Please model this.
Amino acid sequence: MKLRTLTLGLLSASALAFAAHAESITIATVNNGDMVRMQKLTDDFTKANPDIQLNWVTLEENVLRERVTTDIATKGGQYDVMTIGTYEVPIWAKQSWLLPLDKLGDDYDAKDIIPAIAGGLSVDGKLYAAPFYGESSFVMYRKDLMEKAGLKMPDAPTWDFIKQAADKMTDRASGVNGVCLRGKAGWGENMAFLTAMSNSFGARWFDENWKPQFDQPEWKKTLQFYVDLMKADGPEGASSNGFNENLALFQQGKCGMWIDATVAASFVSDPKNSTVADKVGYALAPDNGLGKRGNWLWAWSLAIPAGTQKADAAEKFVSWATSKHYAELVASKEGWANVPPGTRSSLYANPEYQKAAPFAKMTLDSINAADPTHPTVKPVPYVGVQFVAIPEFQGLGTTVGQLFSAALAGQSSVDDALKQAQDAATAAMTEGGYIK
Model:
């Protein structure tokens, strides 16, 4: 008995000593469904890497952006892995705030990453963030309600068709809104949608000399169309709705159409969570015949801040979470339709994925239709489809988002919102030295 007690004591001491030497990394991520799913599957990682412990900080999108930006700019060192987007990567990499990802492993196959996505996450040919999922945006719609309205959704609809369909699908008595669109203020919330939409109306944030363009007719047409459409056919309280709120509305059968991230397709078509899973169709984001569609390009990606003391452990985790192996793990647990989309060419060549994901081709077509280097009808001095890749955009985009959200809520007129946006943008660009 004494020998058994002694043995157990030695084992416990050994376990404690091992735990004391285990390296702990802190991961900041967004509360989107794919990231929440990843956290539930990390036993696969920790079994293979028992010397690495994972700590999670999961935040709403706007809060995440604010926290990680503050931390990396002040060299706070709170996080070892950050979930960031296509906007931050080129700016932060040029500031030497991110580590290049050059130790992802021999079997990682970085060349398999879709070129449009990899290009947005690279600087001077080096990858500075690994895409967890990539997305564009498109139209998700109720096929049954479209048929009831006597209409057929084109593969490439116009904004006029969307308006016509929304008017016919709206049924307040049954709790059905013809269309659900983002209204929550934020440069990555309502302004992601509205900037992409404005491209298709011929608008732009700045002209070739960085002069703000909110006083031009193209922005007036964009914002007026959006506000009128949402007032006639959108849900109540739309100015508070972002991606997650609209996802819930669509899954509950309360939206005839929803124009948003392609990544939502696996959630709206999942019968476990969506009451309309078998009734969803997909189409390209709308246009106005000007040569640009209202779709964006984005990748939620994992990056490692230059200030971390745990770079090797962090890169092991990034490699695992964005690997082909992880895709196969999700497929084995949740089915191929729920694999994080939009990052690897091999996924779209996989017959099992094509069969399980009726939205696969439309997703890839949407990603390939976006051009960050030529995002607008008229020439511009910036890159980025639904954002402007300059440091000032994060603050300015949120300010403009607040003004446009207030116009949607009826707290100001479209004209007032645009005038204030023009003033705010002019002040920001003057202070930044872009204009005199």
